[in-house]
Amino acid sequence: MTTPAPAPQERHDPYAVLRLPEFRLFVSARFCITLAMQIQAVVVGWQIYDITKDPFSLGLIGLAEAIPSITVALYAGYVADVVPRKRIIISVLSVLLFCSLALLAYTTDIGQVLREWGTVPIYSIIFLSGLARGFMGPAVFSFMPQLVKDRKLYSNAITWSSTTWQAASVAGPAIGGLVYAFGGVTMAFGVDAALVLLSLTFYSLIAGRPLPESEGPKLNIKESLKTGLRFVFRNQIILSALALDMFAVLFGGAVILLPVFASDILHIGPEGLGALRSAPAIGSVGMAVYLAYRPITKNAGKKMLWCVAGFGACIIGFGLSNWFWLSFFLLLMSGLLDSVSMIIRSTLIHTFTPEHMKGRVSSVNNIFVGSSNEIGSFESGLAAKLMGVVPSVVFGGSMTLLIVGFTAWKADKLRKLSF
């Protein structure tokens, strides 16, 4: 009697989600809006500094955007679970298009009256943009799986979505700087507005999706928000992954101090500073493309913990380095390892969160990540003032290692996670 031949293993297709026409529209739209926002950030920064000549005014840009975004985050998550996601995205992009056109008008003869108010109109536009982007995150996060449907493709979809975002993050500042340098501020904001319009067009071509059916009785807004928060804080895997990312960014963020390293430690000037700033994103893009071909399924939790530990070790090494190419390599590796952690975290959130709760869970994720970026910059600056630049970076990387060790000890479900 012959033994039947084993069934052939299903072959992994790294381009599986890109074969879906609407997902191609989705990543194209995400690339355009990310590129636009990166260009806008660079040009607004240069424009405000050119007006004020005050470095503190640059910090107020991030504050003007972060405060409204974090303030509306929980409500935005609730809205993403009760209003069709495409409708939210189209509305938000319309507001962002208005903001881009307003910044463009500020630089022309039309904006002469506004310019009499100095930088106040610019900060006001950025504040409105922050409100809109607060609603954008949960809507986009919960809309994407509705385009994919098959849970087996979530990891592939997140990988390509992350690759798109990282690529635009690398290209955006460079394009913004070049257009500003050779075409001026008006042309730069014109390119920004055109990209937002293009993103709006791509999203408009995607068919709308009905809201997922909710389990249980319909809740009012207060109870709905409580349910979302309760779900996150009672799910050890999601909570530990969010906390791990938050504290790693909070203590391990050396990016805010890069100008000091470039000027006083590595002595590489503004050109070298640009290279250092791009290094983490280059590493992230490279790893995201690799993971499209070699997705992580087994021992995902352990790999996430090891990658965050590696991120902390890279930050320590960067703080101690006095050689440009070693510093560049360590920052590149930090971005590479952070990409693994980000993709695993996004995949597990999508996998373990019910469809009808993804907006609320995404809003909690945005609060964790968004607040840690802003507070992490403050922590890095304060630690550098108290300890010195190099000791503060080494301290931050060391704290990241301690947090990984504590998480691995306490969060056994995350440690044993596989997809």
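[next item in queue]
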Amino acid sequence: MADKSLNKTELVAKIAASTGQSQATVDAVLGGLFDALSESVGSGTKVSIPGWLAVERTHRAARTGRNPQTGATIDIPAGYSVKVSAGSKLKAAAK
């Protein structure tokens, strides 16, 4: 597992430094990206940035689970989840 992480503030500062844009501009663009991602994925539209990543909504069927404290079986309702897949450029950067 990675022992380093980059939070949003640090990411905004890094992008602003490399592009010459203000941090406010970069933050607004990232905010717009996240809004577009959540709107698209929420409506069932797959978002794909070739070579980098793909984000899509997946459906989970209803299933039976078990309460770990009591051992009783419980019914888990059907629902949705989000799947994020790394593209080839992102995979290559991880090597």
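[queue empty]
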